[in-house]
Amino acid sequence: MKKLIVLGPGCPRCETLANLTKQAADQLGIEYELEKLTDIKQFMAFGLMITPGLVVDGELRVQGKVPSIDDIKAMLA
Fold it and tell me: Is 9 one of the annotated active-site residues of the chain?
């Protein structure tokens, strides 16, 4: 099971990233747990400097942008 974490204050871009990540995981048919973290201290623990961020299995993979669904799929595969 993949552990997916969206880091951000709940802004529209953060919600878009969460929705695209969920869609990508569903389309790939993988088991996942999606968590949204909004605490700046948690952002810093992952090394996030600009929101939104996406953490895949403990590794910060996206920072400061909303990637395409195809890019997210590539990160999850």
Answer: no
